[in-house]
Write a structure and sequence with these properties.
With 235 residues, this protein is an alpha/beta fold. The protein folds into two domains: 2-99 and 200-232, D-Maltodextrin-Binding Protein, domain 2 (3-Layer(aba) Sandwich); 103-193, 3-Layer(aba) Sandwich (D-Maltodextrin-Binding Protein, domain 2), CATH 3.40.190.10. Helix content is 40%, strand content 26%. The protein contains nine helices and 13 strands. Strands 1, 4, 5, 6, 7 and 13 form a six-stranded mixed β-sheet that branches. The termini are far apart.
C-alpha cells in the first residue's frame, strides 16, 4: 500500500510539473485586461486566453503592458503569446480573431459636438491611443493632420484631459472608455460618436502548433456558449 501511494505521489508531481508555464503579454486596458485588487490580472481577453490555455494543459502567466512594449518584447522572443494583434507580426502566428473592438470618438455631452463621420473631426483637439493613426486607416490619418492630434498610451489620462476641457475628443475602444469613465469620472456624461467600423483582433502565438490548438479550443469555447458568457461579464 505504501508503494501504491508513493507511485501516486510520484506521478502526481510529474503531472504538475508537466503543466508548462506560458508567458502571455496583454495590452493593459480595462475591461479587456487589467489588474483587480484581490483577483489579480483579469478582463475579457485575459479570461478567454486563460480558459483556452488551461484547457490545453498549460499554465498562463500574464503580464500587463503598453502596446508598443507588448509588440516590441514579443518580437524579441520574451513572450509565448501576445494580445491583441492589431498588426501582422514580424514573428509568430496570428490566431483567428476573437476580440470585437468597437473604436468610437467620445466627447462631453455638454460640449454638444456634432460628429457623424471621420471628416467631422477636422479642426478639433483630439487624443488617440498608441498607433491609432495607423490602425484606423488612411481617412482617419489624413483627417487628423488637419486637427490638433496626439497619441497617449494612458487611457485614464486621455479622459482626464477630456473632462478638464483640455481636449475636445478622445478616440478609443467603447467598452474601455466607458469602463474608465464609470470607475473614475462617474459624474461625467459622454457623447459617443460611432464613426468607425468594428474590428476583431486575435492574438499572436510564437509556436505554430500552439496556434492551431488555440484556434480549435476557441471554436469549442464559442460553440459551448462560454465565449458569450465571458463577454457578458463586461457589457
Amino acid at each position: 500500500m505504501r508503494i501504491f501511494f508513493l507511485l501516486i505521489a510520484l506521478f502526481g508531481s510529474h503531472a504538475v510539473a508537466a503543466a508548462k508555464t506560458l508567458q502571455v503579454a496583454v495590452n493593459i486596458g480595462p475591461p479587456w485586461a487589467y489588474y483587480q485588487q484581490g483577483e489579480g490580472i483579469t478582463g475579457i481577453d485575459v479570461e478567454i486566453i486563460r480558459h483556452i490555455l488551461t484547457t490545453l494543459g498549460y499554465q498562463p502567466e500574464f503580464h500587463l503592458l503598453a502596446y508598443n512594449r507588448l509588440i516590441k518584447e514579443f518580437n524579441e522572443g520574451k513572450y509565448d503569446v501576445a494580445s491583441p494583434a492589431a498588426f501582422p507580426p514580424e514573428h509568430g502566428h496570428l490566431t483567428v480573431p476573437y476580440l470585437p473592438f468597437k473604436d468610437v470618438a467620445v466627447s462631453l455631452k455638454s460640449s454638444k459636438l456634432s460628429i457623424h463621420s471621420i471628416a467631422d473631426l477636422k479642426g478639433k483637439n483630439i487624443i488617440g491611443y498608441q498607433f491609432a493613426r495607423i490602425v484606423l486607416g488612411e481617412e482617419f490619418a489624413s483627417t487628423v493632420e488637419q486637427a490638433s492630434y496626439i497619441e497617449i498610451a494612458e487611457r485614464e489620462l486621455q479622459l482626464k484631459l477630456l473632462v478638464n476641457h483640455r481636449t475636445d475628443v478622445v478616440i478609443g475602444e467603447r467598452r474601455l472608455l466607458l469602463y474608465i469613465v464609470q470607475q473614475h469620472f462617474p459624474d461625467q456624461q459622454l457623447a459617443i460618436h460611432p464613426i468607425f467600423t468594428t474590428q476583431s483582433y486575435g492574438a499572436i502565438v510564437k509556436d505554430p502548433v500552439l496556434q492551431q490548438q488555440f484556434n480549435k479550443e476557441l471554436s469549442r469555447l464559442i460553440a459551448s456558449g462560454g465565449y458569450d458568457k465571458i463577454l457578458s461579464k463586461w457589457p
